[in-house]
Design goal:
The protein has 82 residues and is an all-beta fold. It has strands at residues 3-7, 15-22, 27-31, 37-41, 48-52, 59-60, 64-66, 70-72. The mean pLDDT is 88.
Amino acid sequence: MTRIRFKHFLEVPDGEYELIRFDDDAHYVVRDEGGDVLTAERDSPPKVVEIKCDFCGRWSDDVGPFGEELWMCNFGNGPCPA
């Protein structure tokens, strides 16, 4: 389960969520602690997004998709920092 943190988004409160998917229309689809599914647009600033790498556990803004369901450092290209 990949985790994502938002700051300064209009659509969702600041905080940590489960990342369900990043869709083709540049939306983050997430689930909050209560189980509600929310959608946030990626492209309207000002916004801060950090995703937790599924391999090393680091929170970063340079984590990208790796395969179908995982996220990895260096925009999905690895390697994770030592």
